[in-house]
Design brief:
- There is one protein chain.
- By secondary structure, the protein is α/β, with parallel strands linked by helices.
- It folds into 4 domains: 272 residues, Alpha-Beta Barrel (TIM Barrel); 30 residues, no CATH class; 58 residues; 133 residues, 2-Layer Sandwich (Double Stranded RNA Binding Domain), CATH 3.30.160.270.
- It is built from 16 helices and 15 strands.
- β12 and β13 form a beta hairpin.
- α1 packs antiparallel against α10 and α13 packs across α14.
Length: 529
C-alpha cells in the first residue's frame, strides 16, 4: 500500500461469478470448472468469492464445500434465503474455509413482499432479525441483502437495515436487483441511508447492480462515491438477464481514473484477461469483441488515422496499456514456415505450458492449419490449443469426415470415429449436412441427449477463418457444453458435438465402473482397423 492509498479508500471486491454469474441461462459450469475459476479468483486478489447457493442442489453444496477447503486467501461465501434450513446448509458448506461468510437475503420492496413473499412489512422485519441472528450463530461474518432494495420504501428500508446490523450483520448490501436505478439516484439512496440509520457506522455497505439498462458499472461506482466499500460483480459481467457489473471494468475504472475515483482494490489487474478467457471457456459464453477491457478489439486499431497516432505515441488512442490487463501488445506472426521453437515461444507468450505429447499434437495441428490458412492469428492458436487440452482424454474421437451437401440433396455424411481405441465407420442422411453429421454420431453412439444449443462464429476475420462451434446437450437433467474449431464448419460441428457427448458419458459413467457400449451399425457401417 502506497502513502496515497489509505484503508478507508480500499474497495472490497466481492466476486459472484460462481453464484449469480452461473444463474445466467446456459452458463452452468462443471464441478472441476468451478474449482478452477475459484482458484484463479483467489490468486488474483479477489477479497470474497461467493462460491454458490448450497441449498440449491447437491452439486452446488459439493462445489462450495470443496472451494472452502481449497481457498487460501479470499473469504469463501455462500448464499442462503431467510429459511433456517437454508442458513444451516450454507454454514455446513463453508465450514472448512479459513475465512467464511454467510450471505443471506430477503425481499423488502412492496411488489416483492405482496406477490413473492405474501407477507406484511412487520412480518418481513421479524424475518430479517431472525435470519441474521441464525447466521451470526454460525459465523462472525454475516452479510444481509435487501432484495429489490432500489424499489423499497425508504423508511422501511432503513428500519430493516438498522435491525439487521443490530442482529449482527457486518455487511449490508442494497442491490439494484432489477437494474432499475440510475447513478444519481443510487448515490442519493446510499447517502441518505447512511445518514438516517443510527448504527450505519457498524457495518460495511455494499453495491450489487444488474445491467438491464446498461448502467451496472456506473451505478456501482456511484455507490462507492456515496461511501460503499464493497462491490459485488462478476467476470465478464455475466449473470441473470443482462448480467451484473463487470469486475474488470470496475477495477480498471478506479485504476485508470483514480483522479476522480480515488479508491483502490487488491486485485492484480494483469490477470484480468486470463480470468475473462477462463470464464468464457467454462461457460461457453463468448466475450463480445468490443467488450471494455477484455474484448478482442479493446486494444485493436484499424483506422488509418488511429494507426498513425499509435505509431507516434500510444497515448493518442489508448488510455491504458494492454500489459496492465494481461494482454501482449506485440504479436509474433505465425505461419506455415514457423518452426517448433517459434511455436513454443508463442504458446508461452500466450500463457500456455503444455506437456510434451500435448505440444507435439498441437504443433502437428498448427502446421496442418497453416497449410490451409494464409494468416494465423493469436485467436487461431488459442482455439487450437484450448481444443487440444479440452479433448485430450476424450473416449470418442473424430478420425475423418466427408459430407455431400447442396441444393440437390439428400445431404449425406460419412464419418469414422475412434471409440475407446476401436474404429468405426457410419454413413447417414440428414435434413441438411449438420443433421447428417450428428446422425452419424447417434448411429455409432446411441443416446437420448437433446441438442439445446448449436452456435457458430468465426474465430478471426476472412473467408478462410476457423469456425468455432458451441454445442449444448442435455440428458436426464444434466446439461453440458463444448466447443470445436476447424476451418471446415462441419468438422468443427462434429468436434463440438463429440466433445459434449464425451462430457455426458463421463457424467453418466463416473464412479460406477460401467463400460461404454457401442451401438449397432446401421447404414453401410463397417468396422476398420
Amino acid at each position: 500500500m502506497t502513502t496515497s492509498q489509505s484503508e478507508k479508500d480500499r474497495v472490497v471486491i466481492f466476486d459472484t461469478t460462481l453464484r449469480d454469474g452461473e444463474q445466467c441461462p446456459g452458463a452452468t459450469m462443471t464441478h472441476e470448472e468451478k474449482l478452477e475459476v475459484a482458484e484463479l479468483l483467489d490468486q488474483m486478489g479477489v477479497d470474497i468469492i461467493e462460491a454458490g447457493f448450497p441449498i440449491a442442489s447437491e452439486g452446488d453444496f459439493a462445489a462450495v464445500h470443496e472451494i472452502a477447503k481449497r481457498t487460501r486467501n479470499a473469504v469463501v461465501c455462500g448464499l442462503s434465503r431467510a429459511a433456517f434450513n437454508d442458513i444451516d446448509r450454507c454454514a455446513e458448506a463453508i465450514k472448512p474455509a479459513e475465512r467464511k461468510r454467510i450471505h443471506t437475503f430477503l425481499s423488502t420492496s412492496p411488489v416483492h413482499m405482496k406477490w413473492k413473499l405474501q407477507k406484511e412489512p412487520h412480518e418481513v422485519l421479524d424475518m430479517v432479525i431472525a435470519q441474521v441472528t441464525r447466521a451470526r450463530n454460525h459465523v462472525d461474518d454475516v452479510e444481509w441483502s435487501a432484495e429489490d432494495g432500489t424499489r423499497t420504501e425508504f423508511d422501511f428500508l432503513c428500519r430493516c437495515i438498522e435491525a439487521a446490523i443490530k442482529a449482527g450483520a457486518t455487511t449490508i448490501n442494497i442491490p439494484d436487483t432489477v437494474g432499475y436505478t440510475v447513478p444519481e439516484e443510487y448515490f442519493d439512496m446510499f447517502k441518505r441511508v447512511r445518514e438516517n440509520v443510527p448504527n450505519s457506522d457498524k457495518a460495511r455497505f455494499s453495491v450489487h447492480c444488474h445491467n438491464d439498462l446498461g448502467m451496472a458499472v456506473a451505478n456501482s461506482l456511484a455507490g462507492v462515491k456515496a461511501g460503499c466499500r464493497q462491490i459485488e460483480c462478476t467476470i465478464n459481467g455475466i449473470g441473470e438477464r443482462a448480467g451484473n457489473a463487470a469486475l474488470e471494468e470496475v477495477v480498471m475504472a478506479m485504476k485508470v481514473r483514480n483522479d476522480v475515483l480515488p479508491f483502490w482494490t487488491g486485485v492484480d489487474a494483469t490477470m484480468l484477461t486470463r480470468a475473462s478467457k477462463l470464464v468464457a471457456a467454462a461457460t461457453s459464453f463468448p466475450v463480445q469483441y468490443n467488450k471494455a477491457i477484455v474484448g478482442r478489439n479493446a486494444f485493436a486499431h484499424e483506422s488509418g488515422i488511429h494507426q498513425d497516432g499509435m505509431l507516434k505515441n500510444a497515448q493518442t488512442y489508448e488510455i491504458m496499456t494492454p500489459e496492465t490487463v494481461g494482454v501482449k501488445q506485440t504479436s509474433l506472426v505465425m505461419g506455415k514456415h514457423s518452426g517448433r521453437h517459434a511455436f513454443v515461444h508463442k504458446l508461452e507468450e500466450m500463457g500456455y505450458h503444455l506437456q510434451s505429447n500435448q505440444l507435439e499434437d498441437a504443433f502437428v495441428r498448427f502446421k496442418a492449419l497453416a497449410d490451409r490458412k494464409k494468416h494465423i492469428y493469436d485467436e487461431d492458436i488459442e482455439a487450437l490449443v484450448d481444443e487440444e487440452i479440452a479433448h485430450a482424454q476424450d473416449r470418442i474421437k473424430l478420425v475423418s469426415l466427408s459430407v455431400i451437401a447442396g441444393t440437390r440433396g439428400p445431404q449425406r455424411a460419412t464419418m469414422k470415429l475412434d471409440i475407446d481405441g476401436k474404429q468405426m465407420i457410419e454413413e447417414c442422411e440428414g435434413n441438411g449436412p449438420v443433421d447428417a453429421v450428428f446422425n452419424c454420431v447417434k448411429a455409432m453412439v446411441p443416446h437420448d441427449a437433446v441438442l439445446e444449443l448449436y452456435q457458430v462464429h468465426a474465430v478471426t476475420a476472412g473467408t478462410d477463418a476457423q469456425a468455432e462451434v458451441s454445442v449444448r446437450l442435455s440428458e436426464n437433467g444434466r446439461a453440458v457444453t463444448s466447443k470445436g474449431s476447424d476451418p471446415d464448419t462441419l468438422v468443427a460441428s462434429a468436434k463440438a458435438y463429440l466433445g459434449a457427448l464425451n462430457k455426458l458419458l463421463i457424467k453418466r459413467h463416473r464412479g460406477n465402473g460401467e463400460t461404454l457400449v457401442v451401438g449397432q451399425r446401421r447404414i453401410h457401417s463397417t468396422e476398420v482397423g
